[in-house]
Amino acid sequence: MSSPSVSVVIPVYRAAEYVGEAVRSALAEPETLEVILVEDGSDDGSLEVCRRLAEDARVRLFTHDDGANRGAAASRNLAISHAEGRTVAFLDADDWFLPGRLSGPVAVLEADPAIDGVYDAVGVEFETDEAREEWQSSMGGGDLTTMNRRVAADDLLSAILLEGAGMFCTDGVVVRRSVFDRVGLFRTDLRVAEDTEMWWRLAAACRLVPGSLESAVAVRRRHGKNTLTPENPERVGAGFRAALSVYRWGRKMRLPPEKRLVLLRALLGAVLMGGGRTGRLLRSLAACPWLPATREFWRVTGGRLRRGGRKV
Description:
The chain is of the alpha/beta class. The chain has 12 helices and 13 strands.
């Protein structure tokens, strides 16, 4: 077996009772070079727990300069900036890896330098009935967060955003550290869906391939302290903000026109799904009888309209 090469990134916020299990599950993987904890200004004793965990030479602990809570995106960015592994795996502090979690992705990445990352299925465990009900109402239920079919890397963006082919989540992602030089780091102005926004960027610009889609490689825990809950006001409009961010990023990166069109369609879809005056207006337009012809025009032309000599 090759030498350990994976930096496991774990942002920690109010996870004192869980982070120990997360770290132990990561250290149990032979492919793990290091576990990087970033304590994000918790008020529940998480920092003290992390300090004890960092007594293991393979666990490195960082905090933000001012000791404040800066969010998961800033914490992951700090960890990535210190990562020494060739490969980065992500794990939330209240979740855990299942045995053998890293062996498959590492083998794929070592076998093919053209592949940038691997995504796998992630299971879920509920601590309370309320957590189960919230999951079923907000996420549609299901025991796995996964893609529902195997998708070629070039087709992944469209499959996720337009074709309803499922999704993958943070605990199921392993990528080469170098991908962040290409797509940038996590958006720190997004407190919700900052991870989803990153996975869309990776799907647009990198070669991601499926690993285990039928069996979980990690487990995400649902409990009363999860960030993504119905009570979190930042959930409102989170999908739109993520879609807008990726669309703007795609234009700046000068992605191929077909990729930018996918991002534009996803952005319009996010607006249609949202509330407010704009969403109501667009839903009304969607009911107009002339819209199918308009859609067909855009499909045929690929949106190649010009305004003042500039492509729209």
